[in-house]
Amino acid sequence: MARKARIAALAASFTLTLCADAWSADIAQPLPARKPTLIRNAYVMTMDPALGDVPAGDVLVGDGRIMAVGKNLQAPPNADIVDGSHAVVMPGLVETHWHMWNTLVRGMEGDRTGHGYFDVVHKKAGPQFTPDDEYLGVMISGAEAINSGTTFVHDWSHNLRSSDHARAGLKALKDLGIRGRFSYGYFTTIEPDKVSNLDDIAAVKQRWNEFSPEGLLDLGMAVRGPLPGVPKEVVDQEFGAAQKLGLPITVHVNQIARNKDMVQKLCDAKLLRKEVLLIHAMLLSDAEYDCIVGSGAAVSLSPVSEMRVGYGFPRTNELLKRRIPVGLSVDTASITGNGSMFDVMRATQNAASGLLQDEFALPARRLLELATIGGAKAIGMDDRIGSLTPGKRADLILVDLRGYHMMPLTDVANLLVQSTQPADVKLVMVDGRMLKSNGEVGGVNRQALAEAAARRNEEIMRQEMADRVQKKQP
After folding, report:
1. Between the N and C ends of the chain, which has fewer C-beta atoms within 10 Å?
2. pLDDT tens, position by position, 428-466
């Protein structure tokens, strides 16, 4: 009864806290209304095997969903008409694991021992974060995602130092109008034997419709899992809470030698299931691969960060050979530099070719699948997004093919994977609403966001430098 009372009290304070932030009034802008839209005469890449590609095709959008795909479609009288000549229309990109909060400290990590990502971002910057910082980090990440063609983000939020931090991150996602999953996690310096804030997770779940009144967001849990030093009781309690609340769960596994047996531990404890998304999963035994296959769990790969931080090469082809659902992710723009999923596709292709010494290890079309319908399957949303199938939600992008770096127009799939830059993405639609048009992201005051972010980044860096001086570090 005491726990139910705590959850009820947290839920009761939910709406008040949701609106009590310092930045959003200046940064968040009204989102445009949904309108029927007909995109005409584009190269339509549906990512639906039954529909295939439709050269010189049309896409009709209405009521937030894909109404029709074909040639010479008729537009309703009140529809906006978009000329898709010299462009590709395809599903919006699906990102499956991103620590969006720490984009606020992009580039802060150094290039020598003691000043790397985990030292600077997790141990030094993370503890300084306020709820307003959480909001800023998620807003920057989400705006960058939209700008580069990503329509779904998985905010793997692991610096939640209070209930207000969680609410600030969720408010940013809501303000952006992007589709996504908020996986409520722990915080970067939590002690191994401490359990995540399960009461607040339950309170957030209880009032979820207030965060996502249009159904664009869903809730998940981000956990540490059986890391060395984390007691089994903590692992069981967190996994059990997720299952009781009906939440999908994600966990980093098997990326370095000291935790290379995490999947086996999860398997032995019977904690793997279809609703579990495994992050990295680079050092797997045959038995662990078999366990993942048997459980129906999926894997999210982030090749740019995995190579940059020294984990090695993702085992993309091995996972695909075993028909394990695979999605692609940014992971953390504070070390990868940017949040472009086109860059992630390129890195995935190059890493596979380098690892297998095979130029043709991962064809471009397969990469596009992983970044759209494959990612949607990995997060359990392929019934709603990931392809331009009539009836699905209207999450799509238009990529202009007229840039110098796209000339000459040859194989469309190869050009999309190898050459696309964020500036080529001219239109981004989520649930039938234009979030980027004419090359500009709506819903965000760019100047106000930049000024607020620069101010807080400078303060965080100043404190980090003061700590170095106090500790007599170089």
Report:
1. N
2. 999 999 999 988 899 999 999 999 999 988 888 777 655
Query: What are residue 382's phi and psi, to 5 degrees?
Result: -70, -10
Q: Tokens 């795909």 identify what position?
A: 69
Q: Which two tokens stand for residue 151?
A: 């329509």
Residue with tokens 């692609």: 328
SS3 at position 78 = coil
Q: Which residues of 265-324 form beta strands (DSSP E)?
A: 276-280, 298-301
Which SS3 state, helix, strand or coil, does residue 441 take? strand
Please name the amino acid found at residue 286. D
Residue 15 pLDDT > 80? no
Is this prediction's pTM over 0.85? yes
Distance (Å, rounded) from C-alpha 258 to C-alpha 272? 20
Burial 337-369 (b: 16+ CB within 10 A, else e): eebbbbbbbbbbbbbbeebeeeeebbebbbbbb
Residue type, 374: G
The type of residue at 99 is: H
Parse the chain into domains and list their residue ranges. Answer: 37-92+386-441, 93-378
> pLDDT tens for residues 358-409?
999 999 999 999 999 999 999 999 999 999 999 999 999 999 999 999 999 9
Q: How far apart are CA 305 and CA 233, in angstroms?
A: 31
Helix (H, G, I), strand (E, B) or coil at 469: helix
Closest CA to 441 of 94, 144, 137: 144
Neighbours of 236 (CB within 10 A): 13
Query: Looking at the chain, how many residues does it have?
Result: 474
Q: How far apart are CA 90 and CA 85, in angstroms?
A: 14
According to CATH, the superfamily of the domain at 93-378 is Metal-dependent hydrolases (3.20.20.140)
| C-alpha dist (Å) from residue 356 to 92, 245, 365, 415 | 29, 42, 18, 23
Superfamily designation of domain 37-92+386-441: Urease, subunit C, domain 1 (2.30.40.10)
